[in-house]
């Protein structure tokens, strides 16, 4: 493994600015320890490079959407071409309709598409649609599963002190207490063998992005 380069002054300054101007010094909930934190300068294919010239294999891939890697030539060409026609219109437009059609044709269970900017929006709308369909308010969520940062999703993702089942534990301050009664939680590792649980306890990383859907209590 190549030796990690010493953090440059520019990168150090940017990390300090990040702490000053971004909540938690991050863009979301992915945070690295101070001694290994870095600032990405650019990405190409499967790699990203930081401000000090260190190269990383990018397993995060933008938390999903960079499935073709960074700066894929076909994507860059298409984005460049469309940017010249404007970027967002809020109203119906040709590419959005074509994309909805393409997704419906590609995904057997997809009948209609609602485009969302984030996964949090998607799960928030999905919960509302499910409540409308079932005419029930309560939802069941697996402890340790991460489904976004809205109030209903940010429950029992990584409870430091789990309550008795099926009581949900808010993962953040500011979540209305009334929601704790609107969610039941299940530990899906109940079905796993005790050997697998012991193995998980040794190997699970501490972050849900690295281990989506795994029981946070074991981390
Ligand atoms: C299963 C699942 N649902 C929802 C989300 C939330 O997505 P976003 O971070 O775009 O709000 C994530 C993000 O990692 C996810 O893995």
Tell me what the structure shows.
The chain is α+β, with helices and mostly antiparallel strands. Among the domains are: 1-84, Aspartate Aminotransferase, domain 1, CATH 3.90.1150; 135-203, no CATH class. Helix content is 29%, strand content 9%. It has five helices and five strands; from the N terminus they run H-E-E-E-H-H-H-E-E-H. The strands form two sheets. The chain has a three-stranded antiparallel beta sheet, with no helix packed on it. Strands 4-5 form a two-stranded parallel sheet. Strand 1 and strand 2 form a beta hairpin. The longest helix has 16 residues, at 119-134. The two termini are 27 Å apart. Residues 189-219 have low confidence and may be disordered.
Number of helices: 5
Distance between the termini: 27 Å
Query: Helical content, roughly?
Result: 25-40%
- Rg from alpha-carbon coordinates: 21 Å
Q: Which whole number gives the mean pLDDT?
A: 84
Unreliable stretches (pLDDT < 50, length at least 5) are 189-219
- The gross shape turns out to be flat
Largest sheet: 3 strands, antiparallel
Bound molecules: pyridoxal-5'-phosphate
CATH architecture of the domain at 1-84: Alpha-Beta Complex
| CATH class type of the domain at 1-84 | Alpha Beta
Q: What's the count of strands? A: 5
The CATH superfamily of the domain at 1-84 bears the name Aspartate Aminotransferase, domain 1
């Amino acid at each position: 493994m190549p030796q990690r380069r010493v953090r440059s002054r520019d990168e150090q300054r940017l990390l300090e600015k990040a702490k000053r101007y971004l909540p938690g010094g991050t863009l979301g909930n992915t945070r690295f320890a101070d001694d290994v934190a870095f600032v990405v300068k650019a990405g190409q294919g499967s790699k990203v490079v930081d401000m000090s010239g260190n190269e990383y294999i990018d397993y995060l891939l933008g938390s999903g959407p960079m499935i073709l890697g960074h700066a894929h030539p076909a994507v860059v060409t298409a984005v460049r071409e469309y940017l010249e026609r404007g970027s967002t219109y809020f109203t119906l437009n040709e590419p959005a309709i074509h994309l909805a059609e393409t997704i419906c044709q590609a995904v057997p269970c997809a009948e209609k598409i609602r485009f969302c900017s984030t996964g949090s929006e998607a799960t928030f709308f999905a919960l509302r649609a499910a409540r409308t369909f079932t005419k029930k308010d309560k939802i069941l969520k697996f402890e340790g599963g991460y489904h976004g940062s809205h109030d209903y999703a940010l429950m029992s993702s990584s409870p430091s002190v789990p309550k008795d089942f099926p009581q949900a534990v808010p993962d953040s301050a500011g979540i209305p207490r009334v929601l704790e009664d609107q969610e039941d939680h299940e530990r899906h590792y109940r079905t796993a063998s005790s050997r697998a649980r012991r193995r998980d306890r040794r190997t699970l990383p501490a972050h849900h992005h690295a281990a989506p859907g795994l029981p946070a209590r074991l981390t």
